[in-house]
Amino acid sequence: MKPFEAIVREHGAVVLRVCRAVLGPDDAEDAWSETFLAALRAYPSLPPGANVQAWLVTIAKRKAIDVHRAAARRPVLVPELPDQAGAETAGPGQHDGLWAALRTLPQRQRETLAYHHLAGLPFAEVAVLLDSTEAACRRAAADGIKKLRTLETEELR
To answer: Which keywords does the record carry (predicted)?
Structure first.
């Protein structure tokens, strides 16, 4: 079995990209750290020949769910109440590059793209992670890519 430090070096960047795509830049590093802390505890019991990257992405997915749940419980502090109900105020970094584009996607499409295109997992494994079918994951990825391309085309005009 490889030393855990080698596992972090080998898969750390992929896991961070997945965390950023699913959670955004603000929460990604905390989720990455939590992922590897949990993985460190469980690593000795990982069966030989296991797909380590898929295992780590699965842990990252669970940590992302934890972040979403925690955020839903936290109060949101605002300097002033908006004039209209539901008016959204933009914070720093919310409209930056890739995260701004990914944020426009429904969560299922965003997660599918992150797990397949950033983590390199086959659609069959993505389907297991998302409790879905392979065909539904393929469709979600295709729809997400199509929307991202549409956004890119609109920005170029």
So the answer is: DNA-binding, Sigma factor, Transcription, Transcription regulation
Rounded CA-CA distance 153/146 in Å is 11
CA distance 18 to 15: 5
Query: What tokens does 144 get?
Result: 């997400």
105: its two tokens: 């996607």
d(CA 15, CA 35): 8
- Cα–Cα distance between 126 and 35 in angstroms, integer? 18
Q: Tokens 């950023």 appear where?
A: 20
DSSP line for 69-128: HHHHHSPPP-SS--SSTTPPPP-TTTTSHHHHHHHTS-HHHHHHHIIIIIT---HHHHHH
For the entire predicted model, the pTM comes to 0.62
Instruction: Please state, in angstroms and rounded to a whole number, the distance separating the CA atoms of residues 120 and 15.
Output: 11
Task: Dump pLDDT digits (tens) for 28-40.
Answer: 999 999 999 999 9
Q: Using an 8 Å Cβ cutoff, are 138 and 123 in contact?
A: yes
pLDDT of the residue at 150: 87
